[in-house]
Design a protein that fits this description.
The complex is a heterodimer of chains A (777) and B (234). By secondary structure, chain A is α+β, with helices and mostly antiparallel strands. Helix content of chain A is 64%, strand content 8%. Chain A has 32 helices and 13 strands. In chain A, strands 9, 10, 11, 12 and 13 form a five-stranded antiparallel sheet that branches. In chain A, strand 4 and strand 5 (180-181) form a beta hairpin. Chain A is elongated. By secondary structure, chain B is α+β, with helices and mostly antiparallel strands. Chain B has helices at residues 9-14, 42-48, 123-137, 140-146, 212-215, 224-232; strands at residues 55-64, 72-80, 85-92, 96-101, 104-109, 112-118, 147-154, 157-164, 172-179, 182-190, 204-210. In chain B, strands 6-5-4-3-2-1-11-10-9-8-7 form an eleven-stranded antiparallel sheet, with helices on both faces. In chain B, a hairpin with a 3-residue loop joins strand 3 (85-92) and strand 4 (96-101). The longest helix of chain B has 15 residues, at 123-137. Chain B is globular. Classes of the chains: A alpha+beta (777), B alpha+beta (234). Chains A and B meet through helix 3, helix 6, helix 7 and strand 4 of A and strand 2, strand 4, strand 5, strand 6 and helix 3 of B.
Chain lengths: 777, 234
C-alpha cells in the first residue's frame, strides 16, 4: 500500500463509500424466498393456474406426518395429543388425524345438519325411517358408545351430525387403528396438516416444522419418532442443503483464494487491497437490486456472488501486470482497453437477461452488471492509486519465460481446432438423451427415498394428487357449488372405473343453496313430525317425550336461510374451503382435487366433455411448457448476447483477423462444453445456460489479454502470469462447486470448470501470438 | 364449540352448585356405610380380585336412562385380555362386540358399520373402565389414583364404593359388590339428568351382573333398587 496523503485520503474515501453503501444495503435489503420469482411469467391460463397452485394450492401446503417407533396404542395417543396441541397453532390451517370430532360444526350452526346431510335426498323423516333409527339408538344406548351418545340423542335420533361429519372425512378413508389414521401395516400413525405458509416459503415452513417437533416433544417422549413429508418439508430440506453446501464451498473457496493470492503476489497489503473492488462490486450489486426490485431473492444472492466472483480477476490482472518501471496507475491505463472490452462485453451479455421474462434472472443480471461495472471501474480508477510500486515484475520471471517459450514452440493447431469443432458437433447431435431438461423438479431433486416415502404416505392417506386438478370457473360461488354438485355423478363414475380413488371439493362441505332448500322442503312440519315420532316410538323402549329437542331443531331448520360459505369462514373448515372455492373480481373459481389418479386419459376425456369452464389442470405438463417457453426466450437472449458480444469486440479490436482470434477460443469452448455435457448424458437446464455465459465471458477475457500481449515479450510473461492466476483461481472455485451434490451448483460448477480449462488451453493455442509476432519486438 | 362429551351429564352438571356435592359412599351399596369388619381389608380384597389374563365372565347388563320408559337388557360375555385390553361381547338379544384397547373403543354390531371413538370423548366410560381394569389387575394403587375407595360389608357380601377423584366425574358413583374372591355386580350410577330437556330423575345407571349373579333370571320389571338388592345378596 502506498502511504502518501493522497492515497490514504482515497482509501478513507473508498472505505467510507463502502460503509455508506453497506448501511444503505443493510437498511434496504429484504431477502425474499419466493421461488416462483425464478419461474417464468405465465403466458397461458393453464400456466397461470399452475403457478398459483404450485406454491399456494391446498395440495402443496399439506404436510404428511407419520409417527412411529412405539406400540400402536401409544402412537394413537401421541397422534391425538399432537392434534390437541396444534389445533389452534398459528402455523397451521388445520391438523387432522382422522378422529371424528363432533365440534367441527359450531354450536350455532348445529340445526344446519339437516340441510347438510344427504339423508333427506333419498329418505323422509317418516314413521318407518324414524322407527328403524330409534331401534338402532336403543342398541347404541346399551353399548359402550351409549355413555357418549346419551346426551346428544334427544336432539338427533337419526345421528345426522355424524353423517355430516363422516361426509367431511376424506373420500378414500385411510386405514384406522384406535380411531386415528394409520398405515395399512398398523406401524405408523398418520396425520395431515395444512400450513398457512405456502410450500415455497422455506422460512415459514421451517417454523411450522419446528412447531410440529416441539408439540411432539411436549406431549410424548421416549422412542417415538416423527417423519414429515410434503412439498413444504422438501423446500426446507433443499434450502438447508443448498445453503450449507454453498456456505461450506464458499468458505473453502475463499480460503483457497487467499492462499493463492498470497502465493502469486507475496504481498499481504496487495492482497487485501485487491479485495476492495470485489467488496465494492458485491455491495453495489446488492444496492442496485434492492433499489430497483425492492427485495433480493436468496437465489439472486447465491448466484450473483458466484457470477461476480470473476470480478476478482480485474485486480489480479493489475497485480500481475506490475511493471518495474511504471506506476500501477500507468499499468492500469495500458490494461484498460482490454479490461474494459472484457467487462463491457460480459455486462452486455448479462444485460440481455433483463428481457428473459423471469424476474429472478433480471435480478441476477442487474446484480452482476452493477457489480462488474463497479469492480472494473474501481480497478481502473481507484485501486492503482493505492498500490505502491513495490513487488515483483513478472515480466522478468525466468520461469515464465521458459514456460512462454515452450508454449510459443507449440505447433499452430488451426486444423485441429476445426476437427475438434466438428467432433463436438457430432457429439451434440448424436447424444441420445433429450438435449433439454424440462422437468422443474430435477433442478432441486429431493432424495429418491424421501420421494418414495412421500408417495407411500399419499397413497395411504389418499391426499390430493399434486399433478392433476380440475378447475371450475363460474360467475359466483352459488353457481360454482351447483356445478360441482352436477359433476358429482361423473366423478363417482370415475371412481367406480378406478380412474381416481377419491376427490374433494367445496360442495362436499357446503351444498348449494338450491340443494339445501330442497332438503329443507322435505323436512316435516312440527305436527307431522310429532305424529310420525309418536307412532315410531310405540314399540321402542324410549319415553314418548324423549325427543322433544329433535322436534325443536327440525322446526328451526325449516325456517333457516341456507348455510353459506361466509357463515363457515371462521370455523375450522373455513380456511380449507377458501382454498377450494374463491370468489374474486366478480368471478368464482372452484377446485376439485383428485386422489389416487390411475387413469389420466380418462380424466382428460372427462374434462373435454364436461362442458364450458371446466379444465383439467396438468401441473406437470403446464410446468414443462412453461420451461420450454422460458428456454426459448432465454436462447433468444443468448443469441442477442452473442451478437452484442461480437459487436463490442469488433468495435474494440477493429480488425476481422484480431476479432476472429479473440472469439475463436470462446466459441469453440462453448461447443466443447456442450459436447462434454451432452456426451456425458446430461440434459441441459437454465443453469447450464447461465454458466455458459459466465464461461464465455472468462474465455473472452483470456483471449483479449493474450491478444493484447502479442507484441511485447515482458508483457507476454506478465499476461501469462495474470491469466494463469485468474484461471487457476476460477478453476478452483468452480471445481469446488462441481463437486456439490446439488444439481444446480453442480451444473454451474461443471460448466464453468470445463469452460476455464478449455478457454485457457484454446486461448493459448489459438490466440497466442504466432512465432513471428513474438519475435518481432 | 360443542362436543358430545361436553354435554355429558358430568360436564353439564359441573356448573350447577350441587354438582360439587359428591354422592355419599354407600348410597348405592349396602344399607349403611357400615365400618368394614375386622379381617376385611380393602387393599387385600382388591389384590385377591386379580384375574390373570385372559379371563372371561358372563354378564347381564341393565341400562337405565331418563330417555327410557323401561330398561334395556343385554347379556353376553366380558373378556379381560390383559392391561388396557377388554372385550365385551353381547350375545342376546342381538350380537355386538365392543373392543377397548388403550384409549380407543370400537363397537361392531351385526347389520351396522363399525363405529369407534376415543375414550377422551366419553369421560364417564373412561372412569368406569379404569375402575374395572384396576380390579381385574388386582391393583389397589391404580384404583386409588382415580377413586376414593370405601369398603363395607363382610367376607360373604362386601361392597366397594368407588368415588371418582376427578371433580368433573363426581356425579358418578361406581359400586362393586361381591362375595369372597368373586365380584357379583359392577354398577355405575349418575344422578344427573342425561341432557337438557329430559327430566331430572331417575338419572342414568348401568348395572352389570357378573358370573353367578348373571345366571339367575331377572325380575319381570327390574328397577335400579331391585337389582342392587340382588347384587348385595349372597
Amino acid at each position: 500500500m502506498k502511504r502518501t496523503r493522497q492515497a490514504l485520503l482515497l482509501f478513507a474515501l473508498w472505505a467510507a463509500a463502502l460503509a455508506i453503501l453497506g448501511s444503505f444495503v443493510q437498511r434496504q435489503l429484504v431477502i425474499g424466498t419466493d421461488l416462483t420469482l425464478f419461474l417464468p411469467n405465465p403466458t397461458t391460463a393453464q400456466q397461470r393456474l399452475m403457478l398459483e397452485e404450485i406454491g399456494d394450492g391446498p395440495a402443496s401446503r399439506l404436510l404428511l406426518i407419520a409417527l412411529e417407533g412405539a406400540p400402536p396404542e401409544e402412537l394413537a395417543d401421541a397422534s391425538r395429543a399432537l392434534v390437541e396441541t396444534l389445533r389452534d397453532d398459528e402455523h397451521f390451517r388445520f391438523i387432522a388425524n382422522g378422529e371424528l370430532s363432533l365440534d367441527a360444526l359450531p354450536q350455532a350452526l348445529l340445526p344446519y345438519r339437516f340441510l347438510l346431510s344427504p339423508t333427506l335426498d333419498t329418505q323422509d323423516f317418516d314413521v318407518r325411517m324414524l322407527h328403524s333409527a330409534l331401534q338402532a339408538r336403543a342398541r347404541d344406548l346399551s353399548s359402550p358408545a351409549g355413555l357418549l351418545l346419551e346426551p346428544w340423542l334427544p336432539h338427533d335420533p337419526t345421528l345426522e351430525l355424524l353423517k355430516v361429519i363422516e361426509r367431511w372425512q376424506p373420500m378414500q378413508e385411510p386405514h384406522r387403528e384406535f380411531d386415528v389414521w394409520f398405515d395399512r401395516q398398523g406401524a405408523r400413525a398418520l396425520l395431515i396438516a395444512e400450513t398457512k405458509a405456502p410450500a415455497f416459503d422455506p422460512d415459514r415452513q421451517r417454523a411450522a416444522l419446528e412447531a410440529l417437533h416441539q408439540a411432539l416433544a411436549d406431549s410424548a417422549g421416549g422412542d417415538l419418532r416423527m417423519v414429515v413429508s410434503g412439498a413444504g418439508r422438501f423446500s426446507v430440506l433443499m434450502e438447508e442443503r443448498t445453503r450449507s453446501e454453498a456456505e461450506l464451498l464458499g468458505t473453502i473457496a475463499t480460503l483457497g483464494m487467499i492462499v493463492l493470492l498470497l502465493i502469486a503476489y507475496r504481498r499481504i497489503g496487495s492482497v487485501v487491497l485487491s479485495a476492495l473492488p470485489l467488496a465494492s462490486a458485491g455491495l453495489a450489486g446488492l444496492a442496485a437490486v434492492s433499489a430497483l426490485f425492492g427485495t433480493v431473492h436468496g437465489i439472486t444472492l447465491a448466484f450473483g456472488f458466484t457470477l461476480i466472483g470473476v470480478a476478482q480477476d480485474y485486480p489480479m490482472h493489475l497485480l500481475s501486470h506490475r511493471h518495474a518501471d511504471h506506476h500501477p496507475v500507468a499499468v492500469a491505463r495500458t490494461l484498460w482497453p482490454t479490461l474494459a472490452t472484457g467487462m463491457a462485453s460480459t455486462c452486455i451479455a448479462y444485460f440481455t437477461f433483463l428481457f428473459s421474462g423471469v424476474a429472478g434472472l433480471a435480478q441476477v443480471a442487474c446484480f452482476t452488471i452493477a457489480g462488474l461495472a463497479v469492480a472494473g471501474l474501481s480497478t481502473r480508477y481507484a485501486l492503482p492509486a493505492l498500490l505502491s510500486n513495490e513487488g515483483p515484475d513478472y515480466g522478468a520471471s525466468a520461469l515464465l519465460e521458459r514456460l512462454w517459450n515452450r508454449i510459443a514452440a507449440l505447433p499452430s493447431l488451426h486444423w485441429a481446432a476445426a476437427a475438434l469443432a466438428a467432433a463436438c458437433l457430432v457429439v451434440v447431435l448424436l447424444a441420445p438423451q433429450p438435449m433439454w431438461e424440462n422437468d422443474l423438479s430435477k433442478l432441486t431433486p429431493v432424495p429418491s427415498e424421501l420421494l418414495r416415502q412421500d408417495q407411500e404416505f399419499r397413497t395411504q392417506l389418499g391426499t390430493p394428487d399434486l399433478r392433476y386438478l380440475l378447475v371450475i370457473e363460474a360467475q359466483d360461488s352459488q353457481q360454482a357449488l351447483a356445478r360441482l354438485e352436477a359433476l358429482e355423478p361423473s366423478l363417482h363414475a370415475l371412481m367406480q372405473e378406478g380412474a381416481i380413488s377419491g376427490y374433494d371439493d367445496a360442495a362436499r362441505y357446503v351444498p348449494s343453496s338450491a340443494t339445501q332448500q330442497r332438503r329443507q322442503q322435505r323436512l316435516p312440519d312440527t305436527a307431522t313430525l310429532r305424529a310420525a315420532l309418536r307412532s315410531a316410538l310405540a314399540d321402542t323402549p324410549f319415553r314418548a317425550d324423549a325427543f322433544e329437542p329433535f322436534i325443536a331443531d327440525v322446526a328451526q331448520a325449516r325456517t333457516m336461510p341456507p348455510l353459506t360459505l361466509e357463515l363457515l369462514r371462521d370455523t375450522p373448515l373455513g380456511a380449507s374451503l377458501d382454498m377450494l372455492l374463491n370468489e374474486r373480481d366478480g368471478k368464482a373459481s372452484a377446485l376439485v382435487t383428485l386422489s389416487g389418479v390411475q387413469d389420466a386419459a380418462a380424466l382428460h376425456t372427462f374434462a373435454a366433455t364436461a362442458g364450458e369452464g371446466i379444465t383439467l389442470l396438468d401441473m406437470k405438463r403446464a410446468s414443462e411448457t412453461l420451461v420450454v417457453d422460458q428456454r426459448i426466450r432465454l436462447l433468444w437472449c443468448l443469441a442477442a448476447a452473442a451478437l452484442l458480444l461480437i459487436g463490442v469486440v469488433t468495435l474494440s479490436l477493429r480488425r476481422v483477423q484480431r476479432v476472429a482470434r479473440v472469439l475463436a477460443p470462446m466459441a469453440l469452448t462453448t461447443l466443447v462444453i456442450l459436447a462434454a455435457l451432452l456426451g456425458a448424458g446430461v440434459s441441459l437446464t437454465l443453469f447450464h445456460l447461465i454458466a455458459l455465459i459466465l464461461a464465455a465471458g472468462l474465455g473472452l477475457d483470456y483471449a483479449l489479454f493474450f491478444e493484447h500481449a502479442a507484441h511485447d515479450r515482458a508483457q507476454q510473461r506478465r499476461t501469462l502470469h495474470a491469466v494463469l492466476v485468474c484461471s487457476v483461481s476460477t478453476l478452483m472455485v468452480f471445481a469446488l462447486l462441481a463437486m456439490s451434490s446439488l444439481p444446480v451448483l453442480r451444473a454451474i460448477g461443471v460448466t464453468v470448470t470445463l469452460g476455464v480449462i478449455s478457454n485457457f488451453t484454446l486461448s493459448l493455442l489459438l490466440t497466442r501470438p504466432t512465432a513471428e509476432s513474438g519475435t518481432r519486438s | 364449540m360443542r362436543t358430545v362429551a361436553a354435554t355429558s351429564p358430568a360436564a353439564d352438571q359441573a356448573a350447577t352448585p350441587e354438582a360439587d356435592q359428591p354422592i355419599e359412599p354407600g348410597e348405592i351399596g349396602s344399607d349403611a356405610a357400615a365400618p368394614s369388619p375386622p379381617g376385611l381389608d380393602a387393599q387385600a380384597l382388591i389384590a385377591r380380585l386379580a384375574r390373570p389374563a385372559p379371563a372371561r365372565i358372563d354378564f347381564v347388563e341393565v341400562r337405565f336412562s331418563p330417555m327410557l320408559r323401561e330398561p334395556l337388557i343385554v347379556s353376553g360375555e366380558l373378556g379381560y385380555m390383559g392391561p388396557g385390553n377388554l372385550e365385551r361381547r353381547v350375545l342376546s338379544p342381538y350380537r355386538e362386540q365392543a373392543t377397548i384397547r388403550g384409549e380407543s373403543v370400537r363397537v361392531e354390531r351385526e347389520g351396522t358399520p363399525p363405529r369407534s371413538f376415543a375414550l377422551k370423548r366419553a369421560p364417564e366410560l373412561r372412569a368406569l373402565l379404569s375402575g374395572f381394569a384396576a380390579l381385574l389387575a388386582g391393583d389397589p394403587a391404580a384404583l386409588e389414583r382415580n377413586f376414593k375407595v370405601e369398603l363395607s360389608g363382610d367376607e360373604h357380601a362386601w361392597t366397594l364404593a368407588l368415588l371418582p377423584l376427578e371433580r368433573a366425574q363426581r356425579r358418578q358413583q361406581i359400586t362393586v359388590n361381591g362375595s369372597g374372591d368373586s365380584p357379583r355386580c359392577f354398577s355405575m350410577r349418575s344422578t344427573a339428568p342425561a341432557s337438557r330437556g329430559t327430566r331430572d330423575t331417575p338419572g342414568s345407571a348401568n348395572i352389570m351382573l357378573l358370573g353367578e349373579a348373571a345366571r339367575i333370571a331377572l325380575p319381570e320389571a327390574p328397577t335400579i333398587d331391585s337389582l342392587l338388592q340382588r347384587c348385595r345378596a349372597e
